[in-house]
Write a structure and sequence with these properties.
- By secondary structure, the protein is an all-alpha fold.
- The protein has helices spanning about 5-15, 20-25, 30-40, 45-55, 80-95, 95-105, 110-130, 135-150, 155-170, 175-185, 190-205, 210-225, 225-245, 250-260, 265-280, 285-295, 305-310, 315-325, 325-335, 340-360, 365-380, 385-395, 400-410.
C-alpha cells in the first residue's frame, strides 16, 4: 500500500481508536490479510479498499484518488487486472473524475509499446461495459481507440468503429458512423463481421433502402452457412427482393429455405409467406394473415400491413375494428418506439393510419399525419416511404389547408435524401 493511502487509513483508525483487529472485524477482511497489506507484503485490491472504506464510514470512492498508485507494478506500468477493474468500477458507478484521471494516465504514456498495451486495457473495459448494456459509457472508450487511430491495434479499431455504429445507429449520426465501418469490415474477426453485416442490413431495412439490404444480407449469407445469422440473412434477402422486383416464386423459395433453419424461423416463415402474398397484391390472404398474427406477442409488426390491405380492399369498417381492437397495443408502440424494429413499425403504422384517415375522409387530420410521416421518413433516410406519403397527399391535395400546402412545398424543396453509403468489396 502506498504511503499516502496507508497514512489516511491509519489516521482514521486512530481517530476511531481501532486496532488492526477491529478493522478486520468491521471490514470482513481476515486479520492476516489486513496485516500483510499494512506491512506492505500484499498489494491492496479494489475489493479490499471498498470494504475498508465502508467499514470506516467513508463514501465508496472517497479514497480512490490514492488508488491510482496501487495500479502500477514495480516497473511503473499499469497492472492490467487492477487498472481494468478500477476503470470498469468507476465507469459503472459514475465516478467521472477518477475515470478521466486514469484515462489520462493511459493515453499520455510516451512509450508506444506501453500505450498499445493500455489501449488494449481501454478496449477490454469498453467491451465489458457494452456487454452489460452500458453502451453510452462504452462509447466514450471506443472513441478513445478511434481517436488514437493506431494501425498497431487495427482489429480493435475496426471493432470500435462497428460498436460506435451500433450504438449510434438509431440517431442522426448513424449514417456517418456506418461509413467508417464499411472501410474497416475486412479488419474485423469473423464473428464481429457477421454482427456488422446483420446490423447494417437492419439499418438499411429501417430506411427501406432495399438495394443495400440485398447486398449486405447476401454478404452475410455467404459468410455463414447455418444458424440464426443464416436465417436472418435469407429473411432480409427475401424482404429486399420483394421490393426490388423479384418474383413471388423467388420470395417463397427463400422463405422455405429459412423455415428449415429452426422452429423459430419456421414459425416466422408461416406469417412472412402470407405477408408476401399481400405484398404481391393477393389481398384475399389478409384475414388468414391476421389470424396468424392475433395471438402473437409481436402482433404489432404485422398490423400496418393488415390495416393497409383492408384499406385497399375498401374494408374501412374492418380497418376501424383493427384500430379499436388493438388500440392498447398501438398506444404502447407509440410510447415505446425506441428499439429499432418498433421504431420502423411505428412509422409503418403511422403511414397506414394516415392512409386510413384520408380514405375515410377524415380530413385535414389525415393529411397532417401524412406530411408528418413524410418529414420523419426524410429525417431517417427513408426515401421510399417519403415518396409514398407525397403520392397519397397528391390524391387528396384539393382538401389541403393553406398550412398543409406550405408544408408540402417545403417537403418538395428537400434535396432528396443523401446517399452516403459506400460498399466495401474487400
Amino acid at each position: 500500500m502506498n504511503a499516502a493511502l496507508f497514512n489516511e487509513i491509519q489516521c482514521i483508525c486512530k481517530e476511531k481508536g481501532w486496532t488492526k483487529t477491529d478493522l478486520a472485524q468491521e471490514s470482513g477482511i481476515h486479520i492476516s490479510e489486513i496485516s500483510r497489506i499494512f506491512n506492505h507484503k500484499r498489494s491492496l485490491t479494489l475489493k479490499y479498499l471498498d470494504a475498508i472504506s465502508e467499514a470506516i464510514g467513508l463514501e465508496e470512492d472517497a479514497l480512490y484518488s490514492y488508488f491510482y498508485e496501487e495500479c502500477f507494478n514495480e516497473d511503473q506500468i499499469l497492472d492490467k487486472r487492477k487498472s481494468v477493474q478500477f476503470l470498469f468500477k468507476c465507469f459503472t458507478n459514475g465516478y467521472e473524475e477518477h475515470c478521466q484521471n486514469l484515462l489520462h494516465l493511459m493515453t499520455t504514456e510516451k512509450s508506444v509499446s506501453i500505450q498499445i498495451e493500455y489501449l488494449n486495457y481501454i478496449f477490454f473495459v469498453a467491451e465489458e461495459l457494452f456487454k452489460v448494456g452500458k453502451e453510452e459509457k462504452a462509447l466514450l472508450l471506443y472513441e478513445i481507440i478511434i481517436k488514437c487511430d493506431s494501425k498497431d491495434v487495427l482489429e480493435l479499431l475496426a471493432i470500435s468503429y462497428y460498436r460506435r455504429f451500433y450504438i449510434l445507429r438509431m440517431t442522426e449520426d448513424g449514417q456517418t458512423a456506418l461509413t467508417y465501418v464499411l472501410e474497416y469490415l475486412y479488419c474485423m474477426p469473423k464473428k464481429v463481421r457477421m454482427e456488422a453485416y446483420l446490423w447494417i442490413s437492419a439499418f438499411y431495412y429501417r430506411r427501406e433502402q432495399w438495394e443495400e439490404v440485398l447486398y449486405y444480407s447476401e454478404r452475410l449469407r455467404k459468410l455463414v452457412k447455418n444458424g440464426e445469422y443464416y436465417g436472418r440473412a435469407l429473411m432480409y434477402k427475401s424482404f429486399a427482393l420483394a421490393r426490388l422486383g423479384g418474383s413471388l416464386e423467388e420470395i417463397i423459395e427463400l422463405t422455405e429455405q429459412y423455415a428449415g433453419v429452426s422452429d423459430y424461423f419456421a414459425d416466422l416463415a408461416i406469417g412472412n409467406r402470407l405477408a408476401s402474398y399481400l405484398d404481391y397484391g393477393q389481398l384475399e390472404y389478409v384475414d388468414q394473415y391476421l389470424s396468424w398474427l392475433e395471438d402473437r406477442e409481436d402482433v404489432y409488426v404485422g398490423l400496418p400491413k393488415v390495416l393497409e390491405a383492408f384499406i385497399r380492399l375498401n374494408r374501412l369498417d374492418d380497418a376501424k375494428r383493427i384500430l379499436d381492437l388493438y388500440k392498447h397495443t398501438i398506444e404502447e408502440l407509440i410510447i415505446d418506439a425506441e428499439p429499432w424494429l418498433k421504431q420502423k413499425v411505428h412509422l409503418d403504422f403511422r403511414y397506414a393510419y394516415a392512409f386510413y384517415q384520408c380514405e375515410s375522409l377524415q380530413l385535414p387530420n389525415g393529411l397532417d399525419e401524412l406530411l408528418d410521416v413524410a418529414y420523419t421518413a426524410n429525417q431517417i433516410g427513408n426515401l421510399e416511404r417519403f415518396n409514398k406519403c407525397l403520392l397519397i397527399y397528391w390524391r387528396y391535395k384539393d382538401h389541403a389547408t393553406s398550412d398543409q400546402i406550405n408544408k408540402y412545398i417545403q417537403l418538395l424543396s428537400i434535396n432528396g435524401i443523401k446517399e452516403s453509403s459506400k460498399r466495401n468489396f474487400a
